[in-house]
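I have a small job for you when you get a moment. Can you supply me with one protein entry, sequence and fold together? It will help me judge whether the discrete encoding reads sensibly. Write everything out right here, beneath this request:
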Amino acid sequence: MKSILGHSMLCLLTAGLLASPQADAGEVAAGKKPVVSIRRMSDLVKELASPKYAGRLPGTAGDRLSLNVIVNEFKAIGLVPAGTDGYLQPFTTTIVEPDGESHGNPENPLLGERMATSNVIGIIPGNDPELSDEVIIISAHRDHLGQTPDDIHYPGANDDLSGLAATMELARMFMQHKGENKRTLMFVAYGAEEQHEMGSMHHVAHPLPNFPNENIVLMISIDMIGLGYDKWSSYTPAQLNRYANTWFDEVYNGVNDDSDDYSHEYPPEKSGTFSYDAGPFGKIGINNRVFGKAEGIPHYHKTTDSWENVHFGPAAIVTRTIFDFLWKVDQDPRAHAKP
């Protein structure tokens, strides 16, 4: 399938809006900073939230259609396949009702069915001879809740196509600096997150060849950044830089539950289920951070979580700030992989 987003280079978030006049150590020089395309993010969310994909329930025709779109986007970006079958890491899951109090699609006609689906995984290989084996995972989830018995679909635009669009933009941004990244950057669109995080649990339980869990120095999950971030439109570059710097400082500070109003770390928990894809990684002690807001956010796990209700401007600013944070993590000269 041809990339559906190749024409969408309009509405770029300008570099001047978010770039500081001078770059500190570990920052991209202002003149080289890549930009985020609001239009491209919007186009991806609009497409995959449409009825054509029927709510992207794992193992359904809509899930397979969305899988093809994501794989073709990974190819267009230039990511190297890193799954067990090209870009794919296949697994099976049982369709259940989501965790939490949302009770999304409680009358799902496929409840209890065993379904086959996949994670989608691509990398930008690292270039530092001492640090290239270290892995930074940048992820979102691609699945949602499917359809009701009367064929009303759950679009899942904010949850989590907003995160998927951000992950795609981050991949494009880092590709503009291909050859400069020290560590291997792994971009993942997890399947079956709404099914008790089965995609990320499968990844942790079945590490990919050449990418053992002990080499993962950071895992981030971008999950629901399309609402709740409106204040970011008024933040100054200095305020945005403070967020990026604080997140970087907290990666290796030995505290496993740092948080702010917009993100948090997932501490190690002896739990069988989790609320985010970062959970299974946090459980085994891997540094992680979740970006997203669910509490108090309208349309959560409802059929109204549509493209029209996503605030793409603030989401693009958050994405740009996540890039600055990840650049600092990647360029850190210290080795952090576990022996």
About this structure: Residues 262 and 292 are 6 Å apart (CA to CA). The chain has one domain: 30-331. The first helix runs from residue 15 to 18. The first strand starts at residue 12 and ends at 13.
